[in-house]
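pinging the channel bc i need a second pair of eyes. not urgent but kinda urgent?? the chain im working w is below, pasted from the shared doc
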Amino acid sequence: MKEKLDLLPGSLDLLVLHTLASMGPMHGYGIARRIEQVGADTLILNQGTIYAALVRLLQRKWIEAEWGTSENYRRARYYSITARGKRQLASETETWQRMADLVKRVLDAAL
C-alpha cells in the first residue's frame, strides 16, 4: 500500500483554485473529496485543513462564497473562483510547473 503524501507549502491553495476553476462552484467537503479523488487517494484532507485554506482564499479575494443547498438538502456554503483568483491560479500554475521542471532536470542529471 502506498504511503499518504504530505502537502508541500502553498500547494493546497493551488489545488483548491484549480478545482474550482475546472469544476465550478462547490462546497468545502466536495472540494476536498475531488482533490482526493483526482489524487488517487494518495492525499487525505481533513476538514480543518480545507476550511483554513478556504478562509485564507476568501480573505485574499481569490474566491467568493454564497449559501446554498447541498445534494443532501443541507445548507452549505458554495465557493467559486474570482477573476483575481483566476489570475493567481495562472501565476501559481506557471511557478509550480517551472519548479517541477527544475526538480525533474536535477533528478534526471543525478542518474
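so Strands lie at 26-27, 63-69, 75-81. and The longest helix spans residues 83-109. — does that match what u expected or am i reading it wrong
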